[in-house]
Structures are given as structure tokens and as C-alpha cells.
Amino acid sequence: MSELTGKKVLVVVSNRGVEQDELKDPVEKLERAGVKVTIAAPETAQVQTLVGDWDLGEVFEVDETLSEVRESEFDLLLIPGGTLNADNLRLDAEAQRIVKSFAMSGRPVASICHGPWLLVETGLAKNKTLTSYKSIKTDIINAGGTWKDEQVFRCPAGNFALITSRNPGDLAAFNDAIVEELSH
After folding, report:
1. Residue 90 confidence (pLDDT)
2. What b/e sequence results for 137-159 when a residue is b if at least 16 CB atoms lie within 10 Å of its CB, and e otherwise?
3. What is the dihedral of CA 156, 158, 163, 165, to 10 degrees?
4. What residues act catalytically?
5. pTM, entire model
């Protein structure tokens, strides 16, 4: 039995445009560690991933819609990237509600690549230090955050821990940081 058995992670995505490996890799690593992972999207339809924001990737099943999620039941929120995914999520009222709920309750949030756009949109990047895909560096700074060019960064400032990474090349370190966070 794993030390993470019984832990629950919520993954929020749009139904199209999430970067395949930024969804697939963390989900597989967490499930192998005994974590119950729930994928939530705006619609019950499947999630069509993309590779490099362009080519069609694998399809994943949606476990719950964003509006059905009882976010208080989860230990950590995971926000994968993908430009289209992140742009859709940051405008989704339910995704905004969920990330604010995690932050306000002090539970950790992990986000990679363009995923931090949701944090920018909700004001949660303010006074946080984080990394992301380099094209949203200015958005993070303009939102009152501090941007770092690091493989993975954990910011404990404020009421919640925030784990961020830059891109799919950082997935091993990102996944390890999430497992470490859940181990506490």
C-alpha cells in the first residue's frame, strides 16, 4: 500500500486543447502512487488533447463536469497547460470558483506551462513566485507575481502552496514535486 493511498487529486481541463503529456504523465504517476485522480471538464464529453498545441493527441474520459465537482473532497488541484486549454479555463466561471476554493482553504495547487493563466485571471498569482511557459511571464508580472525560469518551483507564500513548472520537458520534476506535496 502506497503512502498516497486515499489521497485525491482534481485535474481541471477544457474539453479540447490540453497538452497531452501535461495531463497524461501526472495522472499516470499519481495513479501508480495510489492517488485517486478525477478529471473534470466543462462538458461530460471526452477530452481531446493536443501535442504541441497543434497535432491531435490521445482522448481522455471526463469523470465529472466542473459544475458537479465538490472541490472540498480533494487534497490537491492540478491545472495542466496547453495554450487553448489554459485560455478556455481562465474564462470559465466554474474553473475560477474551483481554484479560488483551493487557495482560500489552504490546499495546494500545481500548474504547468500555460496553466497559470487561471491563477492570473483569478488574482491568485499576486504576491506569488512561480514559473510557467515563457510567453506568459509578462502576464504573471503584470498580475503582481514574480516569475522565475526554473524547472519546478514551490511557493509557500500566502495561504496556499503553489507548485509550477515551465513546459513538458519539466514533467519529471513537476510530478515529483506533486508527489512530495501530497506526502505531507
Report:
1. 97
2. bebbeebebebbeebbbbbeeee
3. -110
4. 113-114
5. 0.98
